[in-house]
Amino acid sequence: MTHRRLARVVISASLLPAVAAQATKTPQRLAWEPALEWCESRLVEFRGDLEAAHATLLARVEAESPDLLARLRDKKPAKHREGYGLLPEINRDLAYLDVPLQRSWFRIEWLSTNFVSQWRDGFALRQRCETGKELEALCNEYLALRRSMQLMSSNVSYHRYWQKAIPEYREFFARRNALLPKVEELQKLLDQGGDARRIEEMRAEVQSEVAPFQKTPALKLMTDEDGWRVLRVEVVTDITDEAFLKAFEAAVDREYTQSAVAQTKKFRIELSLQRMAPAKLYPEGVPALASAVEIEKHVARFPKGVLVLTTGARSTHAFNGRYIQLGTNRCRPRTLAHEFGHLLGFSDAYLRCFIGKSTDPLGCSIMEWTGLLNDLMGEPEHGRVTSAMVDRLLSAYQQ
87 in helix, strand or coil? Predict the structure, then answer.
């Protein structure tokens, strides 16, 4: 049984190109979908093995080593769900860091091959949990594989969204791709210690094209009696989870108003979240929890011209000056503040482009360049609100 199961995993990995090639025989499906579905099916197997390992480990730890219980409780590898009404798990923020210009790749091919060993290890762990003697080592291995499973799940959702978005927004991504030679030249100059003046000129050119600021018409800057300049931002939401909404408000306040530069410049953001009952949006019946929603039709149900915070995305994203749609992949408070920046008019200060074709059996290879701007919009997890960001808001919204 064991050998047959392990062989099936390895054979499936080796047959991936053949599986992907089936896309050409089913015109109604997107070319890369069979390959991603293959990855999703392996994810289901992986999760099943880890669920069984967790149950066995938890029972053994309770009986043999209760001091390890805290490490396993609430660590069951729950199935990743997405759709209307579901919210992301919020993790703690990472440290602020200066981020160098760097490139990351996202490929379905990598997703399909990189986790083969983890799937195999997940099945092996399931067997060893029953008789293995080193409980602490088994717990450590389980937690490491659980993180791998979460990363795999995040990558699947990422490809589900962006592999489809690239051909849908063809002109936008064509403009992004046109910037690639300039970014690569900048990287070469940085690596070789090139002329500092030329580096700054190129960085400014890239930044102006990659991250243009788009003023949000509904926003206005006011001056309080105490001399502080206040940007009042009203956002309408159909989210009913008060704990999440408070976490969102706290993230915005901490990253913007409480930032050192905002305090120095006597600037603050006053965020007002206006709750809109889902039943008011959908008098004919609220969509079922975790159901799919078409974002354009969904946002059109809100009052015209308002900023919107809602759910239902495969991958959390925002439309400048219009809405934030939340996915269910884990995020950090600072990431929420980054998405809020899009409502203010900021663009992503990183470059997402691609090579290959969306009609290929393994889809496009998606490339992300980060570190173009060393701020919150350039690095959602490590970046901070900078003096330049505050100056941009003051300039754009001053009456």
Answer: coil
Residue type, 386: T
Helices then strands (H, E): number in the chain? 16, 9
Tell me the angle at which helices 196-210 and 180-191 cross, rounded to the nearest 10 degrees.
150
Residue whose structure tokens are 């997107």: 30
Write the CB contacts of 394 (distance below 8 Å, at least 6 apart in sequence): 221, 229, 265, 267
Give whole-number Cα distances, 168 to 35, 191, 301, in Å.
Answer: 20, 35, 23
φ and ψ at residue 138, rounded to 5 degrees: -65, -40
Q: 29-32 long-range contacts, Cβ below 8 Å, gap at least 24?
A: 30/163, 30/164, 30/358, 31/358, 31/359, 31/360, 31/361, 31/363, 32/108, 32/159, 32/163, 32/358, 32/360, 32/361, 32/362, 32/363
Contacts with 291 (C-beta within 8 Å, 6 or more apart), sequence order: 83, 84
Residue appearing with tokens 């197997």:
45
pLDDT digits (tens, 9 = 90+) for 321-377: 999 999 998 899 999 999 999 999 999 988 999 999 999 999 999 999 988 888 999
Say how far residue 276 (Cα) sits from the centre of its chain.
Answer: 25
Does the reported pTM lie above 0.90? Answer: no
> What three-state secondary structure class fits 84?
coil
Paired sense of beta strands 365-370 and 351-355, if any: antiparallel
Structure tokens at 56: 């066995």
Please name each of the domains of the chain with its CATH number: 2-79+108-169 (no CATH), 212-397 (3.40.390)
- Count how many residues are written for the chain: 399
